[in-house]
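PT: before anyone asks, these are the final sequences, not the draft ones from last week. 1224 residues across everything. Please model them as a single complex and drop the result in this thread when it's through.
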Amino acid sequence: MKRELKITVNGDLYDLYVEPGTLLVEVLRDKLGLTGTKRGCDSMSCGACTVILDGKAVKSCTILALQANGKEVTTVEGLANGSKLHPIQQSFIDHWAFQCGFCTSGQIMAAKALLDENPNPTRKEIKYAMNGHLCRCTGYNMIIEAILDAANRIQEEAK
Amino acid sequence: MKHYHVIGEDAPNIDGFAKVTGQAIYTFDMTLPGMLHGKILRSPHSHARIISIDTSKAESLPGVKAVITAMETGERRQGAWRRYPELCDEPVLCLEKVRYIGDPVAAVAAIDEDIALEALDLIEVEYEPLPAVFDPMEAIKEGAPQLHDDVENNINLTRHIEWGDVDKGFEEADFIREDEFILPAQSHVPLETHGSLASFDGGNNRLTLWTSTQTPYYVQCLLATAMNLRENGVKVIKPHCGSGFGGKNELFADQFCAGYLARKTGRPVKIVYSREEEFTCARRRTPIHYYLKIGAKRDGTFVAKEARAFSDGGAYTSMGATLLYLTGWFSAFPYRYPNYRYDGYKVFTNKSPSSSMRGYGGIQANFCGESQIEMLAADMGIDPVEIRKKNAMYPNYEVPGQATIASCGLPEGLEKIGEYIKERGNLPKDHGIGLACYGFNSGGIFNWFNTPYAFSGAEVRINIDGMVDVYSLAADVGQGADTTMCMIAAEELGVHLSDIRMHSGDTSICPSDLGAWASRETLMMGNAVKMAAADAKRQLFEIAASKMGANIVYDLEAGDRRIYLRDRPERGLSYYDVVRDAIRAKEGSLIVGRGHYTPHGKGMISPAFSFGVQAVEVEVDRETGYVKILNVFTAHDSGQVINPVAIRGQVEGSIMMSAGYGYSEEMLYDGGKVLNPNLVDYSLIGYRDMPSAVTVDCPTYEPEGPFGAKEVGEGITCPTAGALANAIYHAVGVRITDPPLTPEKILMALKEKSA
Amino acid sequence: MASDFEYFNPGTLDEALNLLSRYGKESKVLAGGQSLLLLMRRKLVAPQYLIDIKGISSLDYIKVNESGDLSIGALTPHRSVELSRKIQQKFSILSEMEQDLAAVENRNWGSIGGNLCHADPAGDPSPVLVALNARLKIASVRGERNVEVEYFARDRFKVDLAHDEILTEIQVPCPALRTGSRYRKFSRMEGGFAIASVAMSITLNAESDICDDVRIVLGAVSVSSRRAREAEKVLIGKEITDELLSEAGDIASEEVDPIDDMRASAAYRRELIRVLVRRVGKEALLRAGNDSWKGISFKDTGRAALLGRR
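LR: through. Structure below.
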């Protein structure tokens, strides 16, 4: 039996009805059309489905949509301000921190959560914080450099 | 050296904005109005005869719109070997027999995924299980279960390569080594699994297929044949593709099942592989039993090499046939062997077909060859760098009777590696540095697909505002081919990257290209795009020359949005003005340039070869066998660099994949069943495992490549695993010949050694 | 995800317990769901009723009482345990264990209690809590009871929890003075699933260097965390030396009956246990604060010597 789901996604409040078995990632992708959030493994291994839920990075493939009832979700579509990219996004472009791009939304959201919590991380802290994300293309180092650079850019912008 | 305006400088990926904002649409993301969801029923048996299939219960399940079996697809078999129809041996859907766990038997289209899955459970297939065989060395024995009626001893193919006099060579050798290696199955693990969305126009009998592929043109042709449509009755569109690594080079079940179901239902049908299907029913890197013999003179000069390979080919020929040749070819790389002999056997087994994968055939040959060279060097007391320097290929070297190596930066690479090792000096305890050299093809020449078109074709159109439209079917699967092609077009036309608009991935608007495999796009499509741009540029030059009224002896050049006299650059015209005049002069027609490339006069293997050498440093924990891969230093030659940042991406991504092959990645089997078809139990190198990487360029000019460029994406995958094995040997003295070199294997070898 | 269940998300423990007492066997408790939803997706579990307790905020807390005993609400996220100052100060082994448990995203959503109830043999919290001699509080409409963590997991993925019960609290007693504890896991990939793990807690005599108490807990090698009691006997009542730790490692590797699976053979797990007990013991001992402790070179216990990790 469908249940009501009130959820704020990228600042917009949605009032939906979903089956209890519906996953958060299914609501985002299939009901709201926010296909930037990907699914790569369905075993919590790859991190492609990562979104920010009430300020914390989570893997939306293993969360029931109803568990996000009343909460705020930010997806990759919610980062840029119009056509102006978030510094992390710009930094990913500048450092060639993606290739096929399929894992990129998840990587960017995890990086966002990391920098929100720790604005000036070390390389090692980045490796630990991002370890739940697989990338088959880049070999990770260029992503790490993008995140380090993004941290600087965010601090510069704040000045 | 020539001064370039665009190439040789880092350029951002032209798809960057789309990919970092989540706007890039992959096949996985697509939906169409009225779309149905398809699922594929797969064999639970390694080998069985199909007695009967009853789909009636599935068909009567509410929400199910169609079920297909071999009754629809018929006896037709498919495969990419159009030149050799007997090698196209894969049933579209299985009719009489299934040959591996995962062989497709039926497919269902339903109004949602859950119903489609439920319907699969309702299809009743009666099987008569048959004895199965999983190891190539068992499969070739007399009396082994036979997979294909017409193939004796399961020997699918044999290949022989020979030059010089190998036996005489060994007679002259002062040192000889013989070694055996067993290489594992690696999975491609593209983050986006295989997937397709098909839409059928019944009025015109035409199919449109959006699909995650590296080879839109192959899919177009093969699907047309499989569905009995004319070739251009199939339009294939490759949206953004979540990577391939060689695993998306052929026609797959998602593609033909979606096509058939769309035709049958009259509605769009989407099929996406689950991660488990990706592991068990797609393709894998070919496991090989390798036997190698090498002979050298006392001074370290190689005099002969002999190689024998038995590949675990899986149930069908697939692209594994090419592997059988390539691994033999690369076993002689990148050294000068005056005498060489290779015999390869591709053996059918009851497992998923093994096929093309990044570093195709090369990584296997490299692991074995580079391990053996180090063993030989140790036997002979020669330094690992010196023995390689002594035998490395060099520019203009002719591989006897096979191919001529034109550009070759390997000698310079070895110098740089030597310096690097010297700089590192004495290593801490239990550290080791291992080396491996490699060379790789920049595309293949042998036309097994029997394409009547040029290998790569491109078109360039210049609009009135100077915007350039480039049409290229080069398959960008993440490596950045589209960006590379834009750079090449911009450089040739003398415009900025922002003046280029790329149209790629649609077989109905782009001239043909064979696809993203064999590291061919930069050289082959690069040449085609450059030629198309040059054709358009020539049309601009005609107008410019006439307007400038310059002396006939002056050459024109285009750069930075100007067309000017090469020797008097201050005399020139604005590109935009010339474009407007040229279009006016052509009675308002667009300026169109066409280009195509097919290698000629370059033999039958490859038009050019990349080279490099890599040093891997590790620290080994002697008590647990744990290996920390610390740093990877690479000196590589990919000719003139087009986009340095993209090359770095290729190098580092290759390190991740090859280190995985050497250390952690392996498809584990119980008979024919994959035990670890998920990313929990199949271990990829992660953030914390990834070593730091330093890459230095040894640039050469490759005469056959666009602006002197050649490949980078695959060759660099070859060395890391072998270099890792050598590093472990130098750290703790154990030699393991069956990757992955897991901590367990290392510890057990250490215990054996100390016992 | 295919699903055919009725969903409840009680806001209080009482509501949850009432639901459980009503639906019992046909129901499943969902804490974060990171384990359960995977099983449900593969149709390995198909409950009729799903009781989602994640919203019971009263079970999310970390408290230290006047005696220094720690209590953690069962639904406290891993990440809270990891970052808690109280835990970092007095129970650092717990926060260290959490730092290396799965990924940040999993730790943000999953709870320490949910992890214990899932009872994956490779789970990290269980061996650590056994080493800390922790107890669990379990509630049902019938009342409350306590069980030692050591006896909570009965088998792979099976715990001592009746169908109407919920794990509500993890209670960790204040360690005795001069107690040191350490946890290390060995995994093939960094931060990955444990192939073998060891948690150790050593308490030294206040007056001498004699080991008064020790708990050696082996994880990921059996169906659930196991104490290596024979190995413990080697150390108790003695002044611990390198040799004794090696002996304890040898005995632990012999007394365990390791599982043999695709992640590692039994023989390899034995070897890992042998090494881990010695290395973890060394670190735990150092932490026990025995400055004058003889026989072991301190510099050997640097990170590199431990597991080759950095």
